[in-house]
């Protein structure tokens, strides 16, 4: 148990990683009751590594041929991507729902698009496809610090100073942490079974979104055809899911989405959306310290940031 992240939110360690109690209860429910299908496609991330973006992209890729040509745009106008593809443990199997999420997982037609923050080692044994997105730990850390302070502020808690959670983060105590172990679990599986795990990096997604969108579509089993390529479908998906498009929508300025029993303001899922925002928050020493931990943790794995 650790209360260092403050804001009335306690993190608990379960099977080696740190989570809110609600996420752990949901994880146990997933481990007990979720029946995976080989056709399932599960988006896996550690919190604050770009889940919202990945959900938007996967949703748009998957639904691009909807009979209603406006389906994707009109969905995003009403719904934050976080609610378009549900988290297994903190939405579908959560005991803490404020409202009824109107999804019966057993009735969803295949392929089911799902999401999770559960570390690979705790995720139920399955043959389902996994798309993992990770991010430079420095940016994830800064993003998480903003996000958790925002969550606490809603309950009247004072913000926690960045310096006060820094050492905790480095020692692995952060939501979903140790963040390095989270990435390594999925990374190793992606090396063992590349047909099962597609491993993506936020920075690469930023650098060439179209290229990664094509990779995601192929992996999901719905590659872009010639007509779609010529018709600019990939470019359109990239645009509709971009930070600028999503953050301008009214639903993402004033709306909320229920996650883990919290009514979370959508704008907090779309804060800055940049690579390297850590430079505005971390001292040179802090950045070097995280980089050192990253290097030590990932040494010999073939994964780097
Ligand atoms: P910042 O806090 O650095 O801005 P998650 O979705 O896993 O909670 O991660 C949130 C982070 O992803 C936030 O990072 C958010 O701004 C960024 N993000 C959300 N949507 C994005 C998009 N469409 N493009 C790029 N970044 C996005």
Automatic annotation (TrEMBL):
Highest taxon listed in the record's lineage: Eukaryota
SUPFAM superfamilies: P-loop containing nucleoside triphosphate hydrolases
Keyword Transferase part of the UniProt annotation: yes
Enzyme Commission (EC) number: 2.8.2.-
Keyword Amino-acid biosynthesis: no
InterPro entries, per the entry: P-loop_NTPase, Sulfotransferase_dom
Cross-referenced Pfam families: Sulfotransfer_1
Molecular-function annotations in GO: sulfotransferase activity
Annotated keywords: Transferase
Sulfotransferase domain sequence ranges: 38-302
Family: Belongs to the sulfotransferase 1 family.
Designated name of the protein: Sulfotransferase
Organism: Acorus calamus (Sweet flag)
